[in-house]
Design brief:
The chain contains ten helices and 32 strands. The protein has a nine-stranded antiparallel β-sheet, with no helix packed on it. Strands 12-11-16-15-14-13 form a six-stranded mixed β-sheet, with no helix packed on it.
Length: about 650
């Protein structure tokens, strides 16, 4: 079906990725904004004053030593000394002076010796299966022999923009655009462009190169065979015509952020899975309550027209097989990826982990939708650093918790365990499988705190804290202590210290590190330090990284020129000492793009960043007053060739002449 649209076009894939809907949380649970407002209602929260607070007393002695060292280093200023990039908007990327930002992998680049050359006018699923996928998001690195100069790069491919991928999708009809749905071949190309890539890379002469004949190079796509594990595996709600056992799934998609486990596996987080399903479900169907809470079906993509499993009227259980964390053994290119149902089903943003003091592994998980929740997962088993094989099923069993933030600055982690509290048959849960398939509903009953789009969450082993990125929520009408602003257009960052420095603890303390936005606009209420320049402030925090020195890097999503006069970028943020709350711009993306990744290697001499959906939304750019699409994009980055479309790409940043990124 064709869609006629005017110059105000926002393409459906853009809307899905922007989480532009109202949210699907119908509960009266307190929102984080209400809690923050109550907590700080009697405090004079001066702009720029972000002192370390009571949470410092909750971290472990080792973490306190690390924090004291960091404070000593930063007492006279920021721990970052690069020359800041000037914020702005144009067709290309920019990096701090003295650094190189080299394109390492583009959408369509071959990653095997027999990969065909990229031909954007004659794409096929077979070719795309042998090429780097679309819209690179999470970036991870698994070292080979412990090296920071030779390893496996793992990259998520979150979603596809057909209006930028394929010629002829968008045509001009007078003063309107006609947007066609993808045909069957294009749908199959899209399915092959989703998922992830595993690519061997090596640093030679100070520059990174792909190793095309790497033994472990691999594509994971929307059709890769996978195994379901954990409490929901084999449950009747997971069974389909294609898989009566409920234990085998084909594919993964909308893989946003992710993680690399301590034992060197790659975990992919399935986020906006609801957009891939179409059809109708009877109001009295077993899954009606479940799917309403997740927004299924949304029909962003046309996959259900050619593949029955994406039509809920034909395969009503298929959506239950998505929304999980997927674990991939990158050391075996023939291994079957595993969907770890013990970790819960929701719109996962990421899955970053840390080994706790008792050996258990703790993963922090965000559910990226307005008014949804923050989670963590604690394994039952313990990590064995000397036996990789002993760790390979640690994610099959554990306890999933959801966060409830209180206005006194404490946080409680509530277990999502069948039979405990309200998680019983009376409320529609017959087993632990039900609790996990309907994780959101289970968390609703526990009265978890409704958040402003929880995205990446990073534990920091250097200072014992946990950093929660909350991107924004323009639908919020009532504040709470942990989400303090109504119409929260710019988002904020929360810092958690688990009690006793124990990441597996069920209680902790929380504080706001930053309320984001332009600090020169008083009504925005941003709280960057006064040392932050006009180039250094940001909004919409999304992905983040903790480097090997314990420093925080934040990538943004949504700083369009119309909203902020600048593009997204990578920002270095001080969290300790007098410089706490200071931010500096290190890298900025071309027009229409989102900043993803980021990743700093252990030797601190390389930063990898992913430039996602360049040219999308480029109509916001001053002087570019119409929608951006394949034939007429706002930029042709990174190739800048008339016969080549705009291409999402992965970039390697290194210091000129070598040395650490400072």
């Amino acid at each position: 079906m064709n869609e006629h649209v005017g110059n105000g076009t926002v393409f459906r894939t853009t809307q899905l990725e922007d989480a532009a809907g109202e949210g699907h949380n119908p509960t009266d649970n307190r929102t984080m904004g209400e809690i923050i407002a109550a907590r700080f209602s009697r405090r004079d929260f001066l702009r720029g004053s972000l002192a370390a607070t009571a949470i410092a007393a909750t971290v472990s002695p080792l973490a306190l030593v690390a924090a004291d060292e960091a404070k000593a280093q930063s007492a006279s200023g920021s721990r970052f000394d690069f020359t800041e990039v000037e914020a702005g908007v144009d067709e290309t990327h920019h990096v701090a002076e003295g650094y190189d930002a080299d394109v390492l992998l583009r959408w369509g680049d071959g990653i095997f010796p027999d990969s065909p050359e990229f031909d954007p006018t004659a794409q096929t699923p077979d070719a795309q299966n042998r090429q780097f996928g679309y819209n690179n998001d999470y970036v991870g690195y698994v070292p080979i022999d412990g090296s920071s100069e030779h390893g496996l790069l793992v990259v998520n491919h979150e979603y596809t923009n057909d209006h930028l991928m394929f010629p002829g999708i968008v045509t001009v009809d007078g003063d309107k655009l006609v947007v066609a749905e993808a045909d069957e071949n294009q749908v199959n190309v899209e399915m092959a462009a989703h998922g992830g890539s595993v690519v061997e890379i090596r640093k030679e002469g100070g520059k990174w190169q792909m190793v095309k004949d790497g033994a472990n190079n691999r594509r994971v796509t929307a059709e890769t065979e996978m195994e379901l594990t954990g409490p929901a595996a084999g449950d009747p709600r997971m069974q389909t015509n294609a898989d009566p056992t409920g234990r085998k799934v084909f594919g993964t998609f909308n893989n946003c952020a992710g993680g690399v486990t301590p034992w060197g596996t790659y975990v992919m987080a399935e986020e906006n899975f609801h957009g891939y399903f179409m059809g109708e479900l009877a109001a009295d169907h077993r899954e009606a309550r479940n799917y309403e809470r997740y927004g299924v079906p949304d029909a962003t993509y046309a996959w259900g027209k050619f593949h029955d499993r994406f039509d809920v009227s034909k395969e009503p259980n298929e959506p239950n097989r998505f929304g999980w964390i997927v674990e991939v053994d990158v050391e075996d290119p023939n291994s079957v990826p595993k969907k770890r149902t013990a970790m819960g089903r929701f719109k996962h943003e990421g899955a970053e982990s840390i080994v706790n003091g008792d050996g258990r592994v703790v993963f922090y998980l965000g559910d990226d939708e307005r008014f949804d929740y923050v989670y963590k997962f604690v394994t039952v088993g313990t990590y064995n650093a000397d036996d990789r094989a002993a760790n390979m099923d640690l994610l099959a069993e554990g306890t999933l918790y959801v966060a409830k933030f209180a206005e006194d600055g404490t946080v409680a982690w509530l277990p999502l365990t069948f039979g405990e509290g309200p998680l019983t048959a009376e409320n529609g849960f017959e087993s632990q499988a039900d609790v996990l398939v309907e994780t959101r509903l289970a968390a609703d009953f526990l009265e978890a705190t409704k958040m402003d789009r929880p995205e990446d969450i990073q534990p920091n082993g250097s200072n014992g804290r946990v950093y929660v990125m909350l991107t924004n929520n323009t639908k919020r009408e009532e504040p709470n202590p942990a989400n303090p602003r109504v119409d929260n257009a710019f988002g904020h960052i929360i810092e958690i210290a688990e009690d006793g420095g124990d990441f597996a603890a069920t209680t902790g303390k929380w504080e706001i590190l930053l309320k984001c936005g332009d600090p020169s606009v008083a009504e925005v209420g941003a709280t960057f330090s006064t040392e932050t320049t006009k180039n250094g402030w940001f909004g919409m925090p999304d992905n983040c990284a903790i480097d090997s020195e314990g420093r925080l890097w934040v990538a943004t999503d949504g700083m369009s020129p119309k909203k902020t006069g600048r593009t997204d970028g990578l920002f270095a943020v001080d969290t300790e000492g007098e410089a706490r709350g200071t931010s500096k711009l290190f890298f900025r993306v071309p027009v229409g793009a989102e900043m993803c990744g980021p990743l700093l290697l252990p030797d601190m001499q390389t930063a990898f960043v992913a430039v996602q959906h360049p040219a999308d939304g480029g109509e916001d750019w001053e002087g570019f007053g119409r929608p951006s699409y394949y034939e007429d994009p706002s930029t042709r980055w990174p190739d800048f060739k008339d016969d080549m479309p705009v291409r999402p790409s992965l970039i390697a940043i290194t210091k000129q002449g070598g040395g650490k990124i400072a």
